[in-house]
Amino acid sequence: MYLVIDDDTSLSRVLERMLTEDGHRVTTAHDGQRGLELFRRASFDIVLTDLMMPKLDGMAVLKEVKRLNSETIVVFITAYGTVENAVEACRLGAADYITKPFSHEQLRFVIEKAIRMKELVYENIRLRTELTDKYRFDNIVGRSGRMEEVFRLAGRVAQSDATVLLLGESGTGKELIAQAIHYSSPRREHRFMPINCASVPENLMESELFGHVRGAFTGALKDKKGKFELADGGTLFLDEVADLKGDLQAKLLRFLQEREFEPVGASEPVRVDVRIIAATNKDLDKLIREERFREDLYYRLSVVPILLPPLRERKEDIPALADHFLKRYGKERAFTVDAEAMRILMDHDWPGNVRELENVIERATVLATNGVITADLLPQSVRVKGRAVMGSDTPPGGVSMAEIERRAIIASLERTGWNKTKAAESLQIPRHVLLYKMKKLGLKDG
């Protein structure tokens, strides 16, 4: 339903005819005061109002309409001489404006654009609500005592702006906890901005974090905002923070102390309101002793340290995690895990933690034909205990060195989703050596 407010009666009639032809119900008023009286009596989706009117001008109408119903779309009708005022009205909450004279097509375009903008706002609100629901602590699978303690501590710290340091092995869910902290905090309406400090080349990392100004270096053709500025009002998640080099550690320390930074090539500092959550799977105490990580930065980052336990120390969570991943990857099919397969899952040490378990379950759902996950669908690296892979607890007949090597390679490949570069890193051998050994052992991509 539309409300047209304009002291030009002929224009009001034209607008009423145009909108009626498009199938809309229209009510008209010839001054702002009468328009607001009508608005208070009925529910209008869109108000089209002149800017300059007797008794009550369009700006006063806008303020009162938004006070009474903030969801109502307001479009201004204005002459060329008052476009500046119409732009100011848009800043204060109007959806758009149209200048006199205008065609039916122009009017239709402005209204459709205003409606689309309103729909986008609703969609953003819906998506933010979904994210908040998705990353609630009670949606994270883990009911062991160790994880319950993690949830309690993270839930308490979420309501503050304290800097958090998440510690734990790779694959334990550090980013998931960081997201839960953010979306449970007063900052949830703003961005959660993650960056992996180990994945960005060293020569680009400073610009990625702090941005740069035009001309700061070759190829800097325009100003660029870094992650700190993009996360203003929200949370910046620094994953693998131990991989930051010394100069960037110093710059991060300065931000934590002063809450400001200088983009690359800039002469003036930039202040932002950003909460820092950092994470690492490395031994920071050892790095500090080796003078590879600043001790003062460590204390600034670890205002609230949270240690996430590896999966081998909370095996009671495995059945629930397996069920969670079965539902995620099973799609429309209902999967179960038989007793022998579950025994194997419970017996495995999970060096890749929850991420490894997720990969194993996803693989099994692809291979299963009857909705039951059986032991033969599990990778060999899981069926054979980690101790046997390393050569201990061998069967009576013994295990050859070639077989031990083969098992270790298979375990690393399956743990990394057959990413040969990462598998080579975990085995501490060059990638070309791994490729050679795979060829020699007759191993192909899983």
Task: Supply database-style keywords.
20 helices, Helicase, Ruva Protein, domain 3, 446 residues, elongated, five-stranded parallel beta sheet, alpha/beta, Rossmann fold
Assign the CATH superfamily of the largest domain: P-loop containing nucleotide triphosphate hydrolases
Bin the strand percentage: 5-15%
Going across the biggest sheet, name each strand in turn.
2-1-3-4-5
Computed over alpha carbons, the radius of gyration is 30 Å
Per DSSP, the total helix count is: 20
CATH class category of the largest domain: Alpha Beta
Q: Which class of secondary structure composition applies to the elements?
A: alpha/beta
DSSP strand tally: 14
N-to-C CA distance:
60 Å
CATH fold title of the largest domain = Rossmann fold
Please summarize the sheet with the most strands. Answer: 5 strands, parallel
Mean pLDDT: 87
Shape: elongated
Total number of domains: 3
How are the SSEs ordered, and which strands pair?
Blueprint: E1 2-5, H1 9-21, E2 26-29, H2 32-41, E3 46-50, H3 58-68, E4 73-78, H4 83-91, E5 96-99, H5 104-134, H6 145-158, E6 164-167, H7 174-183, E7 192-196, H8 202-210, H9 227-230, E8 235-239, H10 246-258, E9 260-261, E10 270-271, E11 275-280, H11 284-289, H12 295-301, E12 304-307, H13 318-330, E13 336-337, H14 339-347, H15 353-367, E14 372-373, H16 380-383, H17 386-389, H18 401-415, H19 420-427, H20 431-441
Parallel strand pairs: 1-2, 1-3, 3-4, 4-5, 6-11, 6-12, 7-8, 8-11, 13-14
Antiparallel strand pairs: 9-10
Helix pairs in contact: 2-3, 6-7, 10-12, 13-15, 18-19, 19-20
